[in-house]
Amino acid sequence: xxxxxxxxxxxxxxxxxxxxxxxxxxxxxxxxxxxxxxxxxxxxxxxxxxxxxxxxxxxxxxxxxxxxxxxxxxxxxxxxxxxxxxxxxxxxxxxxxxxxxxxxxxxxxxxxxxxxxxxxxxxxxxxxxxxxxxxxxxxxxxxxxxxxxxxxxxxxxxxxxxxxxxxxxxxxxxxxxxxxxxxxxxxxxxxxxxxxxxxxxxxxxxxxxxxxxxxxxxxxxxxxxxxxxxxxxxxxxxxxxxxxxxxxxxxxxxxxxxxxxxxxxxxxxxxxxxxxxxxxxxxxxxxxxxxxxxxxxxxxxxxxxxxxxxxx
Length: 312
Description:
Protein name: CID domain-containing protein
Shape: elongated
Keywords: mRNA processing
Low-confidence stretches: 1-11, 146-191
Strand content: under 5%
InterPro entries: CID_dom (IPR006569), ENTH_VHS (IPR008942)
GO molecular function, one term: RNA polymerase II complex binding
Pfam families: CID (PF04818)
CATH class of the largest domain: Mainly Alpha
Radius of gyration: 27 Å
């Protein structure tokens, strides 16, 4: 069989027979999935052929092999998007009917993996606005079968459960400041530990004045409310507010604007940190699932060996 460990991206020219061989030899190891995914992405102009063969292989594969093929699909989708939309477009053609049929089957292992992938594809907008249509078509807008509702809400995407995924960051809040855009760019590079450390540093830089900003904001809100009451009372009595009150109102308005600006930066820093921690949890969850899958295969093989020895 082909040694995936010695395979480097782009070493092989594209060949349909080689593609078929790679699909046949694919296993659930991280090395196998990463190597094959890089090879596919390096030949992304042949995405249509790759996805058609992947689809055919999935439909004819055993349940254990389907899990590996799902991880491969996810890895290709996540890591090819930065280079082009070829694989996103082609996988979109086959995934809806394939997953719909899968979720009506008794293949619980594949359904569990596919359910998690659908959650993450939707969260990361891998398919853009079409991702929501995928969920609606499969589940009618409801949660995926067998899905733990806390996965998407509590754990939070970045990282898809592929054991070979490299990096993609999603920010759960709307970025409204230029420095927030810089933060997203800064976090999009580097490996997980580096990105988490960067997020922590950015977070601590921003929260140094958090308590002060919160107190100033609360005080300004309270002051404006009091001034509003004074204005209402003055209007009821037919009198006008003096220039000192108007100056105070203008001053509190400026304080509120400054507080909102500062709190928006803190919100962005907290959200970025949360996103990194969430993605790290998802990555560990996917690796744990991979280890369990490998253990299941190894234990079954060990049972077969024991049975063979008894027959000899």
